[in-house]
Fold this protein.
Amino acid sequence: MLSSPLQTFAPPVGLFNVLHSSGISNGMVVEWVLYIVFTFWALYTIVAIYHWVKYSHASLVAFPAIALHLFISIALIVYAFSGTLL
Amino acid sequence: MKEFELEPGEHVVLSARRHWFLFFAGLLPYAIIAVIPFALPKFLALVPSFDSYGVFFTYTTPLGRAAISVWLLITWTGAWGAFTKYFLNAWILTNLRIVDIKQRQYFSREVSSLFLTRVQDVTTDVIGVIPSLLGIGDIKVQSAGAVDEFVMHGIPHPGQMRDLILKYVPEEAQTTGV
Protein backbone atom coordinates (compact mmCIF):
# COMPACT_ATOMS: atom_id res chain seq x y z
CA MET A 1 0.00 0.00 0.00
CA LEU A 2 1.22 3.46 -0.83
CA SER A 3 1.45 5.77 2.14
CA SER A 4 1.69 8.97 0.08
CA PRO A 5 -0.16 10.18 -3.00
CA LEU A 6 1.37 9.55 -6.41
CA GLN A 7 3.60 12.27 -7.72
CA THR A 8 3.15 13.77 -11.16
CA PHE A 9 5.64 12.56 -13.76
CA ALA A 10 8.41 15.02 -14.36
CA PRO A 11 9.26 15.84 -17.97
CA PRO A 12 12.63 14.50 -19.19
CA VAL A 13 14.56 17.65 -18.32
CA GLY A 14 17.93 15.96 -18.87
CA LEU A 15 17.05 15.11 -22.46
CA PHE A 16 15.85 18.65 -23.12
CA ASN A 17 19.08 20.02 -21.64
CA VAL A 18 21.14 17.85 -24.01
CA LEU A 19 19.05 19.03 -26.97
CA HIS A 20 19.28 22.67 -25.88
CA SER A 21 23.05 22.44 -25.54
CA SER A 22 23.13 21.14 -29.14
CA GLY A 23 21.18 24.18 -30.29
CA ILE A 24 17.94 22.23 -30.82
CA SER A 25 14.85 23.79 -29.28
CA ASN A 26 11.76 21.95 -28.05
CA GLY A 27 9.83 23.52 -30.90
CA MET A 28 12.18 22.06 -33.49
CA VAL A 29 11.80 18.57 -32.01
CA VAL A 30 8.02 18.85 -32.07
CA GLU A 31 8.09 20.21 -35.60
CA TRP A 32 10.18 17.27 -36.85
CA VAL A 33 7.91 14.79 -35.10
CA LEU A 34 5.00 16.44 -36.90
CA TYR A 35 6.78 16.22 -40.24
CA ILE A 36 7.39 12.49 -39.74
CA VAL A 37 3.75 11.84 -38.79
CA PHE A 38 2.48 13.84 -41.75
CA THR A 39 4.80 12.01 -44.11
CA PHE A 40 3.31 8.69 -43.00
CA TRP A 41 -0.16 10.20 -43.30
CA ALA A 42 0.63 11.34 -46.86
CA LEU A 43 1.90 7.90 -47.90
CA TYR A 44 -1.15 6.16 -46.41
CA THR A 45 -3.47 8.64 -48.08
CA ILE A 46 -1.82 8.20 -51.47
CA VAL A 47 -2.15 4.39 -51.21
CA ALA A 48 -5.81 4.63 -50.17
CA ILE A 49 -6.65 7.14 -52.92
CA TYR A 50 -4.93 4.88 -55.45
CA HIS A 51 -7.28 2.06 -54.43
CA TRP A 52 -10.35 4.29 -54.55
CA VAL A 53 -9.47 5.58 -58.00
CA LYS A 54 -8.45 2.21 -59.38
CA TYR A 55 -11.36 0.14 -58.10
CA SER A 56 -14.21 2.54 -57.36
CA HIS A 57 -13.64 5.48 -59.67
CA ALA A 58 -17.10 4.99 -61.18
CA SER A 59 -18.79 5.14 -57.78
CA LEU A 60 -20.54 8.31 -56.67
CA VAL A 61 -19.01 7.84 -53.23
CA ALA A 62 -15.36 7.79 -54.29
CA PHE A 63 -14.54 11.44 -54.84
CA PRO A 64 -16.68 12.82 -51.96
CA ALA A 65 -14.96 10.30 -49.65
CA ILE A 66 -11.52 11.40 -50.82
CA ALA A 67 -12.46 15.09 -50.58
CA LEU A 68 -13.84 14.66 -47.05
CA HIS A 69 -10.70 12.85 -45.92
CA LEU A 70 -8.42 15.53 -47.36
CA PHE A 71 -10.52 18.35 -45.92
CA ILE A 72 -10.59 16.97 -42.37
CA SER A 73 -6.95 15.88 -42.45
CA ILE A 74 -5.66 19.19 -43.78
CA ALA A 75 -7.75 21.05 -41.20
CA LEU A 76 -6.11 18.98 -38.45
CA ILE A 77 -2.64 19.50 -39.93
CA VAL A 78 -3.17 23.26 -40.12
CA TYR A 79 -4.42 23.23 -36.54
CA ALA A 80 -1.32 21.31 -35.45
CA PHE A 81 0.93 23.94 -36.95
CA SER A 82 -1.23 26.88 -35.86
CA GLY A 83 0.53 27.20 -32.51
CA THR A 84 3.92 28.89 -32.36
CA LEU A 85 6.23 25.92 -32.12
CA LEU A 86 9.53 27.66 -32.59
CA MET B 1 -15.61 -2.04 -61.30
CA LYS B 2 -12.75 -2.89 -63.63
CA GLU B 3 -11.95 -6.29 -62.13
CA PHE B 4 -14.33 -8.13 -64.37
CA GLU B 5 -15.91 -7.45 -67.69
CA LEU B 6 -19.55 -8.20 -68.20
CA GLU B 7 -20.21 -10.92 -70.76
CA PRO B 8 -22.47 -10.15 -73.72
CA GLY B 9 -26.03 -10.22 -72.42
CA GLU B 10 -24.90 -10.04 -68.80
CA HIS B 11 -26.14 -7.28 -66.52
CA VAL B 12 -25.73 -6.42 -62.86
CA VAL B 13 -28.79 -7.33 -60.81
CA LEU B 14 -27.59 -6.25 -57.40
CA SER B 15 -24.43 -5.15 -55.66
CA ALA B 16 -24.23 -5.53 -51.92
CA ARG B 17 -21.84 -4.73 -49.12
CA ARG B 18 -21.73 -5.68 -45.47
CA HIS B 19 -24.59 -4.28 -43.41
CA TRP B 20 -24.17 -0.66 -42.31
CA PHE B 21 -24.55 -1.72 -38.68
CA LEU B 22 -21.43 -3.89 -38.91
CA PHE B 23 -19.57 -0.99 -40.48
CA PHE B 24 -20.54 1.40 -37.69
CA ALA B 25 -19.75 -1.25 -35.08
CA GLY B 26 -16.28 -1.42 -36.61
CA LEU B 27 -15.95 2.36 -36.24
CA LEU B 28 -16.74 2.28 -32.52
CA PRO B 29 -13.10 1.73 -31.41
CA TYR B 30 -12.03 4.78 -33.41
CA ALA B 31 -14.78 6.86 -31.78
CA ILE B 32 -13.63 5.75 -28.33
CA ILE B 33 -9.98 6.52 -29.16
CA ALA B 34 -10.97 9.97 -30.45
CA VAL B 35 -12.84 10.81 -27.25
CA ILE B 36 -10.13 9.61 -24.83
CA PRO B 37 -8.06 12.86 -24.72
CA PHE B 38 -11.19 14.87 -23.89
CA ALA B 39 -12.73 12.39 -21.43
CA LEU B 40 -9.59 11.37 -19.56
CA PRO B 41 -8.97 14.73 -17.79
CA LYS B 42 -12.53 14.65 -16.49
CA PHE B 43 -12.04 11.16 -15.09
CA LEU B 44 -8.67 12.13 -13.60
CA ALA B 45 -10.28 15.09 -11.85
CA LEU B 46 -12.55 12.67 -10.00
CA VAL B 47 -9.58 10.95 -8.35
CA PRO B 48 -7.68 13.34 -6.05
CA SER B 49 -4.34 11.54 -6.33
CA PHE B 50 -4.47 11.75 -10.16
CA ASP B 51 -5.82 15.30 -10.26
CA SER B 52 -2.38 16.79 -10.94
CA TYR B 53 -2.09 14.86 -14.24
CA GLY B 54 -4.81 17.04 -15.71
CA VAL B 55 -2.17 19.60 -16.77
CA PHE B 56 -1.00 17.17 -19.46
CA PHE B 57 -4.35 17.52 -21.21
CA THR B 58 -4.47 21.23 -21.91
CA TYR B 59 -4.87 21.79 -25.63
CA THR B 60 -4.41 25.56 -25.65
CA THR B 61 -0.62 25.41 -25.71
CA PRO B 62 1.24 24.90 -29.04
CA LEU B 63 2.45 21.48 -27.90
CA GLY B 64 -1.06 20.52 -26.77
CA ARG B 65 -2.55 21.61 -30.10
CA ALA B 66 0.05 19.61 -32.00
CA ALA B 67 -0.47 16.53 -29.82
CA ILE B 68 -4.27 16.55 -30.07
CA SER B 69 -4.10 17.18 -33.81
CA VAL B 70 -1.78 14.22 -34.38
CA TRP B 71 -3.97 12.02 -32.17
CA LEU B 72 -7.12 12.96 -34.07
CA LEU B 73 -5.39 12.76 -37.46
CA ILE B 74 -4.21 9.20 -36.82
CA THR B 75 -7.65 8.21 -35.51
CA TRP B 76 -9.48 9.85 -38.42
CA THR B 77 -7.17 8.30 -41.01
CA GLY B 78 -7.69 4.88 -39.42
CA ALA B 79 -11.46 5.30 -39.50
CA TRP B 80 -11.35 6.47 -43.11
CA GLY B 81 -9.19 3.46 -43.96
CA ALA B 82 -11.86 1.23 -42.39
CA PHE B 83 -14.48 2.90 -44.59
CA THR B 84 -12.27 2.41 -47.64
CA LYS B 85 -11.93 -1.28 -46.85
CA TYR B 86 -15.67 -1.56 -46.23
CA PHE B 87 -16.45 0.05 -49.55
CA LEU B 88 -13.96 -1.94 -51.60
CA ASN B 89 -15.41 -5.25 -50.38
CA ALA B 90 -18.50 -6.06 -52.39
CA TRP B 91 -20.67 -8.83 -53.75
CA ILE B 92 -22.16 -8.40 -57.16
CA LEU B 93 -24.97 -10.51 -58.48
CA THR B 94 -25.42 -10.53 -62.22
CA ASN B 95 -27.90 -12.56 -64.21
CA LEU B 96 -25.11 -15.08 -64.90
CA ARG B 97 -22.90 -15.21 -61.81
CA ILE B 98 -22.02 -14.00 -58.33
CA VAL B 99 -18.82 -12.00 -58.02
CA ASP B 100 -17.14 -11.78 -54.64
CA ILE B 101 -14.61 -8.94 -54.31
CA LYS B 102 -12.44 -9.20 -51.23
CA GLN B 103 -10.10 -6.35 -50.33
CA ARG B 104 -8.27 -7.91 -47.40
CA GLN B 105 -5.83 -5.03 -47.10
CA TYR B 106 -4.19 -2.60 -49.45
CA PHE B 107 -2.56 -4.39 -52.38
CA SER B 108 -4.29 -7.64 -51.44
CA ARG B 109 -7.39 -8.10 -53.52
CA GLU B 110 -9.24 -11.24 -54.54
CA VAL B 111 -12.03 -11.36 -57.08
CA SER B 112 -13.83 -14.66 -57.56
CA SER B 113 -16.83 -15.56 -59.66
CA LEU B 114 -19.35 -18.32 -59.29
CA PHE B 115 -21.52 -19.01 -62.29
CA LEU B 116 -25.14 -19.53 -61.41
CA THR B 117 -25.27 -22.65 -63.58
CA ARG B 118 -23.04 -24.32 -60.99
CA VAL B 119 -25.15 -23.40 -57.97
CA GLN B 120 -26.49 -26.42 -56.12
CA ASP B 121 -27.80 -24.95 -52.89
CA VAL B 122 -28.23 -21.57 -51.23
CA THR B 123 -28.42 -21.36 -47.44
CA THR B 124 -28.97 -18.30 -45.24
CA ASP B 125 -27.96 -17.92 -41.61
CA VAL B 126 -29.33 -15.23 -39.33
CA ILE B 127 -28.13 -15.75 -35.77
CA GLY B 128 -28.68 -13.47 -32.79
CA VAL B 129 -31.07 -10.77 -31.64
CA ILE B 130 -29.53 -7.76 -33.40
CA PRO B 131 -28.99 -9.61 -36.70
CA SER B 132 -32.61 -10.80 -36.56
CA LEU B 133 -33.92 -7.31 -35.86
CA LEU B 134 -31.77 -5.61 -38.48
CA GLY B 135 -31.80 -8.39 -41.05
CA ILE B 136 -28.10 -9.21 -41.03
CA GLY B 137 -26.94 -12.66 -42.03
CA ASP B 138 -24.69 -14.93 -44.01
CA ILE B 139 -25.37 -16.67 -47.30
CA LYS B 140 -23.67 -19.92 -48.24
CA VAL B 141 -23.84 -20.84 -51.87
CA GLN B 142 -22.83 -24.42 -52.59
CA SER B 143 -21.50 -25.11 -56.02
CA ALA B 144 -20.56 -28.10 -58.10
CA GLY B 145 -17.12 -26.69 -58.71
CA ALA B 146 -13.77 -27.12 -57.04
CA VAL B 147 -14.62 -24.38 -54.55
CA ASP B 148 -17.41 -26.03 -52.63
CA GLU B 149 -18.81 -23.01 -50.81
CA PHE B 150 -19.13 -19.37 -51.59
CA VAL B 151 -19.85 -17.52 -48.35
CA MET B 152 -20.99 -13.95 -47.93
CA HIS B 153 -20.85 -12.71 -44.35
CA GLY B 154 -22.95 -9.98 -42.76
CA ILE B 155 -25.02 -8.99 -45.72
CA PRO B 156 -28.31 -7.12 -45.38
CA HIS B 157 -31.53 -9.06 -45.92
CA PRO B 158 -29.98 -12.43 -46.78
CA GLY B 159 -33.40 -13.97 -47.44
CA GLN B 160 -34.10 -11.51 -50.23
CA MET B 161 -30.63 -12.07 -51.61
CA ARG B 162 -31.14 -15.84 -51.57
CA ASP B 163 -34.46 -15.50 -53.41
CA LEU B 164 -32.83 -13.23 -55.96
CA ILE B 165 -29.97 -15.69 -56.51
CA LEU B 166 -32.39 -18.58 -56.94
CA LYS B 167 -34.48 -16.51 -59.34
CA TYR B 168 -31.51 -16.26 -61.68
CA VAL B 169 -30.31 -19.85 -61.32
CA PRO B 170 -31.20 -21.52 -64.63
CA GLU B 171 -33.99 -24.12 -64.55
CA GLU B 172 -31.72 -26.96 -65.73
CA ALA B 173 -29.24 -26.29 -62.91
CA GLN B 174 -32.04 -26.42 -60.33
CA THR B 175 -33.32 -29.77 -61.59
CA THR B 176 -30.03 -31.49 -62.32
CA GLY B 177 -27.90 -29.82 -59.68
CA VAL B 178 -25.22 -28.95 -62.24
Observations:
- Chain A touches chain B at residues 5-6, 8-9, 26-27, 30, 33-34, 37, 41, 44-45, 47-48, 51-52, 54-56, 58-59, 61, 65, 68-69, 72-73, 76-77, 79-85 (CB under 8 Å).
- The CA atoms of residues 37 and 46 of chain A lie 14 Å apart.
